[in-house]
Specification:
The complex is a heterodimer of chains A (about 290) and B (about 130). Helix content of chain A is about 35%, strand content about 30%. Chain A has about 290 residues and is α/β, with parallel strands linked by helices. The longest helix of chain A is centred in the middle third of the chain and has 17 residues. Chain A is elongated and about 75 Å long. Helix content of chain B is about 55%, strand content about 5%. The chains are: A alpha/beta (about 290), B mainly alpha (about 130).
Chain lengths: ~290, ~130
């Protein structure tokens, strides 16, 4: 399977501050990738580099097999993008903005757009300047889907949506990915949404990718371990892959990355006890990875 | 539109969603919710009713197929075999012990004695034995 995006050790500084540092990442065709990262981790900058809005300092990006800085019209027509905040042409009515956007594309699925406007309860006569944040976000999502792109890029698409609208959005994306071959790359802070729709998760930490792989693999790999033993646990005990640890003589609590049956057996033997292994949800894993 | 809810999924749980689906199919077959010869809902149906990625559902189904819990019938979908095989699972006994530990702790907290707990276990077992 080919990759929709291929990034090889890119670096980007914004006003002398290093934002992306030697970052590499591949987005395979047909995948739904959720991008997680703390505020300031570089999520938006990464998305902008992929789309060619800003130029990387070093390294190489291929988006749809092209240099994003000089992306062809054909490639652009295949991309749908929802920025974090977007409010162009405040004097236009929502309906006029839809027509104006449609005029840039050779292909526009009017039936799809009309259906979404109706289902999402958007008032087309409302002026762009007076739409609420949530309404504006709905409108920009609709605008990004009208030309039926096969590569969707969303920068926190649901940040301003109410829970009902968020669910409608997720359902629509799932419908799109199950009906036709479509790749989705989105950043979010809502980990439960990511768990529903993403198959791959990329964790951005201080400008580079800390983890990228199957969501299930991440959940299977990061575990919380409770250790109770009659032996003394050294205060400076070092456990391989530990993200955090609390040690109190006979009790210890570790969060470990890359924990498996072999390590479990070794640990149980070392301390002559049975340990308890707990599953963590994505939010907890994210917090542990960003300690 | 009538959307049947086949599974209960909690994306916030630490258990990966595909494992939640696997567990519920296994329990469904054991309890008779899914009967021999019956077809499981399609990947598409499950993913849209639960609003989860279709890949997750197909992953769960193919792992179940690999373990011979369900069988794939070309052009029809995933079917519960006529004689479901009881798969041995080392983890089963351990999981059961963990559940029982909770039961014992609750019983102690509510000051129920061992006999009455065993009696209700037997009763519950019988109640759930016919399909």
């Amino acid at each position: 399977m080919s990759n929709i995006v291929e990034i090889q050790s890119i670096t980007k500084k914004l006003s002398k501050r290093p934002v992306l540092k030697d970052l590499s990442l591949s987005v395979p065709q047909g995948s739904v990738v959720g991008l997680l990262g703390k505020n300031g981790a570089g999520k938006t900058t990464l998305l902008k580099c992929i789309l060619g809005f800003i130029k990387v300092d070093h390294g190489k990006i291929l988006t749809l097999n092209e240099d994003p800085w000089i992306l062809s019209d054909t490639a652009k027509a295949r991309i749908g993008f929802v920025p974090q905040s977007f409010r162009p042409y405040p004097w236009l009515q929502a309906g006029q903005l839809i027509d104006y956007t449609a005029s840039f594309y050779t292909h526009w699925n009017k039936a799809l757009v009309d259906r979404l406007v109706k289902e999402w309860g958007l008032d087309l006569s409302g002026k762009v300047s007076v739409l609420s944040e949530g309404e504006m976000q709905k409108l920009s999502i609709i605008l990004s889907l009208g030309h039926e792109p096969d590569f969707l890029v969303f920068d926190e698409p649901v940040a301003s949506l109410d829970p009902a609208a968020r669910r409608q959005f997720l359902r629509e994306i799932l419908d799109i990915v199950s009906q036709r071959s479509c790749t989705v790359f989105f950043s979010t802070h809502i980990t439960s949404d990511l768990e529903r729709i993403a198959d791959t998760v990329a964790v951005l930490k201080e400008g580079s990718i800390d983890f990228c792989g199957a969501l299930d693999d991440l959940k299977d790999a990061v575990k919380r371990i409770r250790l109770r033993t009659n032996k003394n646990i050294p205060v400076d005990y070092v456990m391989e892959g530990a993200l955090s640890q609390k040690i109190n003589v006979h009790d210890a609590l570790f969060t470990v990355r890359g924990f498996d049956q072999k390590k479990r057996e070794a640990l149980e033997k070392e301390f002559d006890t049975k340990i308890e292994v707990e599953d963590l949800n994505l939010e907890e894993i994210f917090l542990e990875m960003n300690r | 539109m009538n959307i049947k809810i086949y599974f209960q999924i909690n994306p916030n749980s630490g258990v990966p969603i595909y494992r939640q689906v696997i567990d519920q199919v296994r329990i469904g077959i054991a309890s008779g919710k899914f009967k021999p010869g019956e077809y499981l809902p399609s990947v598409r149906e499950v993913s849209s009713s639960l609003e989860i990625n279709p890949m997750t559902v197909s992953k769960a189904y193919s792992l179940l197929e690999k373990d011979n819990v369900i069988e794939f019938i070309r052009g029809q979908g995933m079917r519960v075999p006529d004689a479901p095989k009881i798969t041995e699972n080392k983890g089963n006994e351990k999981q059961m012990k963990a559940l029982l530990k909770e039961v014992v702790n609750c019983a102690k907290q509510w000051s129920l004695d061992q006999d009455s707990v065993l009696k209700s276990l037997k009763q519950t077992w019988e109640e759930n034995s016919h399909e």
